[in-house]
Design a protein that fits this description.
The chain is of the alpha/beta class. The chain contains five helices and five strands.
Length: about 140
């Protein structure tokens, strides 16, 4: 398995506006342990952002497109991402990907959408422009 330093090169988490976190998955992790560790590192980074700005609610745009068609989400990683989505201070999560080739992340999103359907909290998009519009960041 890769080191944390190597795994951190697989994604980028940045605050791009006062209340918008953008997460970009740069490469996929096919190893289940590595995939799970990546999700934990992302979770920890989001917690760090939330802790630094305790009075702000956030929206997230998650861009999966750079990963390509071998996008992979382990079962443990799905649980960690669900934890992130459940956070009260995360108001919306727009996920950008290719539904034709990224079926594993789409499966996760569909589970999250069904879980949060009454709150309209998670949605899948094919473009950044659509995602920004949905989270009301223009």
């Amino acid at each position: 398995m890769k080191t944390d330093k190597e795994i951190k090169k697989l994604f980028k988490v940045v605050v791009v506006k006062p209340n918008l976190i953008k997460i970009t998955f740069l490469k996929t992790s096919v190893d289940k342990k590595e995939n799970t560790r990546k999700s934990k590192l992302i979770h920890d980074k989001i917690d760090s952002i939330l802790n630094k700005k305790p009075d702000i609610t956030f929206k997230i745009i998650l861009d999966l497109r750079p990963m390509g068609s071998k996008a992979n989400v382990s079962e443990k990683a799905k649980k960690i991402y669900t934890k992130v989505a459940k956070k009260d201070r995360i108001k919306k999560i727009a996920i950008i990907g290719d539904s034709d080739t990224q079926s594993e992340p789409l499966n996760l999103v569909l589970n999250l959408v069904s879980f949060f359907s009454t709150r309209n909290k998670v949605a899948w998009f094919s473009s950044y422009k659509e995602a920004k519009k949905w989270v009301h960041i223009i």
